[in-house]
Predict the 3D structure of the following.
Amino acid sequence: MIPLIPRNLNNFKESIVRVAVIYAPREVGVEDRPDPKIVAPTDAILRLSATCICGSDLWPYWGAEAIVGPRPMGHEYVGIVEEVGSEVRTITPGQFVVGSFWASDNTCQICQAGYQCACVQRVGMGSAQADRLRVLWRTGRWWQPRRCLRMI
């Protein structure tokens, strides 16, 4: 019987997550990367429950888009909030949320009108084909499926 080794290893080495990475057309692997951490007070960390394969993941896979170096895959995701920065007020740890493929700051006029996907400060999300994900600028809107189901 092989003993199970805890992922944290009692702080002897940094925690890791598994991330799907594309290296070249039709060449995808899984790498160990450092566990995401809160960097800014508006960040959130999610434990991912599911992620999607999007057309923009498939273009480089089929060779229709150039790949510059190993590139983490995935940007459409759902998961459970594990940790939030000090300025995040719209979600709390333990909530199940649906994330966007864009991180938006929720302060520009376009965000305030409800179109966060067109934020002038938007940043494309990546690395969502992983165990955990750092999400930027989560001071704004999240999609919370439980809330939507109660309205039906």
Q: What stands out?
A: The chain has one domain: 38-151. Residues 104 and 121 are 6 Å apart (CA to CA). The helical segments are 55-62, 109-112, 145-151. The mean pLDDT is 82.
